[in-house]
Amino acid sequence: MGVVLATLDTAIANTALPTIAADLQSPAAAAIWIINAYQLAVVATMLPFAALGDVVGPRRVFLGGIALFTVASLVCTLAGNVPLLAAARALQGIGAGAMMSVNIALIRLIYPAERLGRGVGMNALVVGVAFAVGPTVASLLLAVADWPWLFGINVPLGLLAIVFAWPAIPRSVPRPHRFDLVTAGLTAVSFAALIFALGSVAQLAGWGQVLPAAVLALVAGAALLWRQRGHPAPMLPVDLLRRPMFALSAVTAVTAFATQGLAFVSLPFYFEQVLHRDAVHTGFLMTAWPVVVAIAAPVAGRLSDRHPPGLLGGLGLALLSAGMVALALLPAQPSVVDIVWRMALCGAGFGFFQAPNLKALMSSAPPERSGGASGVVGVARLLGQTSGAALVALCFHLAGIAGSTAALWLGAISAGLAAVASFARLWV
């Protein structure tokens, strides 16, 4: 339920943004912070919360995340202007960051090692279903209620999740090292500044906006590396990145999720502006991808308990690359079947990458570093998706209406690179 709340909220807010902006009489540029505040908060807090999970146990971090997310959802419901709503969304992002930072670490605690693939496959299924139904849920709620209920519905669901979680989530033995607040601050600043700089470059913002953010990211990152040198469990897990299997799995994740970001931001424009489909039709066409991901992910998770993740992930990402090429080569007036089978091919490929890659990341880290590894899972996903979305914006700036097609070709290249990184794990 926690994962569903965090995933649904992103899709719901994206879908409802025009309605919210109109109701609060806000220009689009200001209303975008309702989305950006959430994403920046999640990215900035994920690694610090993962490190905190290694110290106090993932149970406490997860429960605290659900509680904060629920309270912040209530504030979102009552917000009467964009600044207050954006601030409440940032609080939601912190809560979601706490949940997602230790989510996979909890799965590793719950499932025995020989069935870990099934556990991460189930997690991928839940994420895929939530992502698929998000736009539909938003549309149905907006049809019968005002936009504050999009956030208000999280309150009873969050309370119910706490009721289920309190007796059920396993406890773990706390680690002897302490939590470093200064390192947490440097980590948060580094990643928030990096994401802000990437977005600014994609929007072709002036150097007066891009350069300070880039310099801040570099300075804070260098200070972070200096401060945590020699630490047995560094917050930025450079110790794990020295492990070839872990590093290749992280690279695979970033490039694969960059493909997803390129696709999910560009395809609505492609369907509506290039293929001239209406918004409702576009929503149904977009659903084919996550629905097939939800079907394929549990199957891939079970297979990863018997076959090398590098092989399964590589084959899946090769399918994803082929699907992106097929979408870019759609005829001028394609039928629904022409579009759906291509979207389904992408979904099958992505589904066969996700669960095996999660298992490879978690199983290549020692048990005492499960929190750090779980944090990398979330950060890799968000960095990839954010980079993909930024590249789409850049494509539109440079190529106009043809930018959506260019983004699909970039996605095919990114998925191909991810497949190479995945297959490389067979020789590690």
TrEMBL record:
It is found in: Cell membrane. Its main location: membrane. The keyword rRNA-binding does not apply. It is a multi-pass membrane protein. It holds the Pfam family MFS_1. Gene3D superfamilies: MFS general substrate transporter like domains, Multidrug resistance protein D. Coiled coil: none annotated. The keyword Endoplasmic reticulum does not apply. This is MFS transporter. The chain crosses the membrane at residues 31-49, 61-84, 90-111, 123-143, 149-169, 181-201, 207-226, 246-271, 283-300, 312-333, 339-358, 379-400, 406-427. Residues 1-428 form the Major facilitator superfamily (MFS) profile domain. It comes from Roseateles agri. Keywords: Cell membrane, Membrane, Transmembrane, Transmembrane helix, Transport. PROSITE patterns: MFS. It comes from the Bacteria.
